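Q: Could you write out the predicted structure for this multi-component system? I'm mainly interested in how the pieces pack against one another.
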Amino acid sequence: MSRDRRWALRWSYFFLVLFAIFFLMPPIYMLITSLKTSAEISAATNPWWVYHPTLSNYIELLTSPAYLTYFRNSAMVSVIVVSLTMLISVPAAFALSRMKFWGSAVLATGIFLTYLIPETLLFLPLFKMFAVFNEWTDIQLINRWWVLLFLYPTLTVPFCTWIMIGYFASIPKELDEAALIDGAGWIQTLTKIFIPVALPGLIAATIFAFTVSWAQFLYPLAFTTSADQLVLPVGIITSLIKGDVFNWGQIMTGALLGAAPPLIIYAFLMDYYIAGLTAGATKG
Amino acid sequence: MAEVKLRKVVKRFDEVEAVRGIDLDISDHEFVVLVGPSGCGKSTTLRMIAGLEDITDGEVLIGGDVVNDVPPKDRDIAMVFQNYALYPHMTVFQNMSFGLRLKRYPKAEIRKRVDEAARILDIKELLDRKPKQLSGGQRQRVAMGRAIVRNPKVFLFDEPLSNLDAKLRVQMRTEIKKVHQQVRTTTIYVTHDQVEAMTLADRVVVMNQGNIEQVGTPHQLYHNPRTRFVAGFIGSPAMNFIPCQVEEVNGGLSIRLTNELSFPIPPTRAAQYQNHRENGKLLLGLRPEHITEAGPHLEPGEVPFEAKLDVTEPMGMETLVYFPVNGTQVCGRVNPNAGARDGAPLRLAANLNNMHLIEEASGRVI
């Protein structure tokens, strides 16, 4: 190993460790705090050490019906949104990347551009739209958890479609031509060739859609209010902060438990994420 | 099995005319190779036959039926692609049986056909592997197997050997020929490699700039090219083209290359060139193997001359010699023991029984 390379490695490790410490600090602090009683949190002791560890925060949260409701709402919203997103964006990406029709290129770019509009810009007009909708049809959309099923895909579908267009575009054209000659229709080409071959991309898109839905804060904060309609991120904030009293132990516990599902999903699907399935399709 | 006919087939991409109204008849069981430089329209023609490109104008007939508006899957064809286009997530067996499974053939029938194709191609032990576990040659075999199991009317090959290394290419060439001898399916094969075209084809179709230059057996194309393009494209090293004039000398005809160098035209050939005397722009076409070292006894039609060699290229079984004539670099093939050396003079003989005379303006062989 050359001298230059050795130094380059040393510096990379130095900065990697620095970044790791920086990014791990908050979750570690959350973990430490979640194991303390409220008394210990407010006591003037070393905040980085637990003197009297307790699981009371965990027990209280996991037995509280409200927290379990938030968790259930979050899970339902995320799973349904991810399914909806995939059902829409995979065929959309296939059409946009393979069926060259008039305006397909403009449409593809347009889809991505919609992703660039922030939700902070959209929730006020949406609110107005829901109010008008309520006047016309008498159907109340505000404070209903299932309304989130229509809102989240506006964030996930464009991005997932964009990711999938990229993946599908990397599949050699001869592969669908071969399928075409073998007698496959468009749907069969999609389900039997494209989806299996682009599985890593599909999983990447799924992870993205799940993370976005699970962590979404603004829309549920704006559109849901009563406790039985709340999702986890908003539920923790609204129920565990009472006036100016912050129940820090439970807030930290709730946030930590809330972060667990995406972490678990990442851990299991990471290998797929990296695996290059297209190897061997054509000359390698 | 079926014959394929093209009737005034045209393909336009926006403003560019890739194929310019070609006619071609391919009979049942025939192995036809479309050959030409890149961009000559050969792949486009094949893709129109396959149904992967729309036909701008004209008709394509497979087995007597016009297939212009028939989708690829209903044309009963099979295609082998340059990059194999194997489905990466399927095993060899699944790859080969994909088309049959889509058509819901009975399991036993699929098994039988795949086994038969695997036997022909000698890939029986590979059936459970994935494409990425195969070498280039094996992938090519699987791609061919996928075509064979469908038992189609026509095989289409789109430069199937271009991705293989030189040695494997020669080997697979023989394989393809063997497979065709066994299955006898009408085959249309596209390549830019004239050696592949010559060795594989019953008939070769030479294409250039969207037109067919000439259709014929390899022997016809080699010995009786109709245009300068075909003459230059077929054969390696390429035919020499030397600017010349035809003149009358002592009652016979003669080819004048330079002030010093002039070859008498053999009497057997003289008649066909009679009308081209004093016609300025002519080219003498002579293949390198018809310029050899002059032996002690000259064959009929051989004319000796002296040349100062620029470069010699020993190939082992022969030596290629290059020398200038009338501003053109001319290539000859001499015996390795003829004593050819860079920069040295050598006594050579041109065999004019095999000469071609070409009109420079039209590129037509006279």
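A: Regarding packing and overall arrangement: Chain A touches chain B through 25 residues (CB under 8 Å).
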